[in-house]
Amino acid sequence: MAKQASQHGLDHFQDIRFGMFIHWGLYSIIAKQEWVMHTDRIPVSEYEKLVPQFNPVKFNADEWVSIAADAGQKYMVITSRHHDGFSMYNTALSDYKVTNTPFKRDPIQELADAIAKRNDVQLGFYSSLLDWHHPAYRFRKESGLAWADYLAFLHGQVRELCTNFGDIACVWFDGDWPRHAIDESNAYFEAGGSFEYDQLYDLIHTLQPNAVVINNRHEDPLPGEDIQGFEQDLPGVNTAGFNTTTISPLPLEVCMTINDHWGYSAADANTKSTRHLVHLLVRSASVGANYLLNVGPTALGEIVPTHAARLRGVGEWLKVNGESVYGTRAGAIAPTEHTVSTRKDDTHYLHVLNYTSDCVSVADMPSGVTQARVLHNGAPLSLEQKDGKTVLCIPEAHRDAFDTVVVLS
Ligand code: FHN
User: Fold this and answer.
1) Virtual CA dihedral for 90, 96, 102, 103, nearest 10 degrees?
2) What is the distance in A from the centroid of ligand 1 to the CA of 245?
3) Which residue range forms the structural domain that includes residue 378?
4) Which residue from 231, 233, 253, 268 has its CB within 8 A of the most atoms of ligand 1, so it is best to mutate?
């Protein structure tokens, strides 16, 4: 039987609820998102010309970690290597890496060091299963290499990620999508191989027993995966067009972009409002899912100021209302268009997201609830029974602009 993360790791991952996703790499220079090598059909030899241009002189690991911490994000998942095959840390397994750019520094090591100075954020790694650059992935005929060489590289990098940076939160795989393979991702089918997930996952669970494994396959989870992930949609919803609507009993995670792209895209000004981000966070929490919210830093190494400001806005809300998110599990009160709920044992948190009128009626109030108060100021609210429902009226003075949390106990 495949190993899983420790129970402590699984519980902890669910307790922390909110993370920062970071897509950062050579593609940030072109500023047309992380798939630009594929969408613009850039040959490897041309794309490699970005290497001597990468010099993110404004990168400051302490600042990135403090933005995440201010936002209330408890983990950061950064692209150690995206589909373009460029490693963003000083891997011993490739020369195609950040330390061979004019920047010379290892930003992931710097993030790990910045995180080690504090105790409120953890590091996790995105690792791409497909690789548009590695000679053993797409270019076996030309290079004379075998699929086994690619596996040795992939597994070797995962070993590095699990040994070089202290305790990590997760390893987050991407690039194996059985239901919609692209040309380049077919390379491993052609090789007749597999990613040898059993060994890969066992490696992680042995080296980092508390780290969780997520594989963004848009499919039911495989043995050894600890979390089921959903991309750009809440669990069970499929507006993005590639998510499975089947929800497994595993803990869940929703990943989303703060605008419309993962990697930096200069033309994308469609940043989600702080209010909407709070709603997506609590809607995720209400169905038992973490919310991993992506930013795509610039080629100079900055988190876009508007993105940082929106994140900090979420953090302001969490400073007062965090009790209704961290350490909670899926709510017992069914969600409606305007309300969702989270739960910690016998305490229920009703999140009032929109006011169509002054009062909210709850059809399925959990038995035993006799008291209600507003979380941010402690104001008591009365619970009235009407037509078989519990009605709560929230005076305007007690409302929060994003989400008024009512504690029901
Ligand atoms: O192809 C990637 C994409 O670039 C990005 O990394 C997202 C993040 O979930 N995952 C893939 C698409 O499913």
Assistant:
1) -30
2) 18
3) 331-408
4) 231
